[in-house]
Amino acid sequence: RCHHRSPAMLDVPFLPFCAFLGALGLLCVAMVGTWCQHWRGGFSLDGSSRTFNWHPVLMVTGLVVLYGAAALVYRIPHTWSGPKLPWKVLHGSLALGAFVLTVLGLAAVFCFHNSQGTPNMYSLHSWMGLGTVLLFSCQWAAGFGAFLLPWAPTWLRALYKPIHVFFGSTILMLSVASCLSGINEKLFFSLKNGTMAYKLLPAEAVFANTLGLLILIFGVLVVAALARPSWKRPDSNSPDSRQVQDALGG
């Protein structure tokens, strides 16, 4: 059998890749916070537009960055041997933290709309975002029941696992799409006058568009990491898994 690898298939170390993703995620959070602080007036809880500013920050932090971190837990080589329960708890806790931040982000936008008399749930962005959050909640509840509760039978876990993995990547890409549509919608609503029109590409538009591209890159790289065969946890019953366990055990 031919073992020659093309340059496109060269191995990329996971941990440096993960560190790069972490830095990129932190950059996305820092940029969305800077956008809301510098151009959108900062943050408050008074029902004004400054209350709305919590929405993009919490959504990017929870629904994209923290959710992406939760998705990558089982790609860490140290999770491939030993008990799985601590890693299950970490995976579920990160996902739960992402969900809590997401719910707070939704609360911020509904509070702003209600205080300003603005209708809720009229845009494609709002439909996509709420649908993503509902799917996320179902994903977490189903994962908790199947993988963390002790009475779930093995055959049910085996049946549900590929479904859980598929919807994990799907929810992440829906989250990215929701964030991008939200950034674009906010720019259209905010940049209207003759000196700051969106079509004139003022500094805020350049900054927010760049933020959107970085969010997209983050999401694509996380999905690529999830799809990479060499970074997947081997099946515990496979010969490859036994070889990995022997190597990790020294």
From TrEMBL:
InterPro entries reported in the protein's UniProt record: CYB561/CYBRD1-like (IPR043205), Cyt_b561/ferric_Rdtase_TM (IPR006593)
Keywords assigned by UniProt, alphabetized: Electron transport, Endosome, Glycoprotein, Heme, Iron, Lysosome, Membrane, Metal-binding, Oxidoreductase, Translocase, Transmembrane, Transmembrane helix, Transport
Topology versus the membrane: Multi-pass membrane protein
Enzyme class: translocase
Gene Ontology, cellular component aspect: late endosome membrane; lysosomal membrane
Enzyme Commission designation: 7.2.1.3
Any GO MF annotation of the entry: transmembrane ascorbate ferrireductase activity
Annotated catalysed reactions: Fe(3+)(out) + L-ascorbate(in) = monodehydro-L-ascorbate radical(in) + Fe(2+)(out) + H(+)
Cofactor: heme b
Transmembrane spans: 12-34, 54-74, 94-115, 127-151, 163-183, 203-227
Coiled-coil spans in chain: none
Source domain of life: Eukaryota
Region (Disordered): 231-250
Sequence ranges assigned to domain Cytochrome b561 in this UniProt record: 20-227
Oligomer status and interactors: Homodimer.
Chain's role: Transmembrane reductase that uses ascorbate as an electron donor in the cytoplasm and transfers electrons across membranes to reduce iron cations Fe(3+) into Fe(2+) in the lumen of the late endosome and lysosome. Reduced iron can then be extruded from the late endosome and lysosome to the cytoplasm by divalent metal-specific transporters. It is therefore most probably involved in endosomal and lysosomal cellular iron homeostasis.
Name of the protein this chain belongs to: Lysosomal membrane ascorbate-dependent ferrireductase CYB561A3
UniProt organism field: Molothrus ater (Brown-headed cowbird)
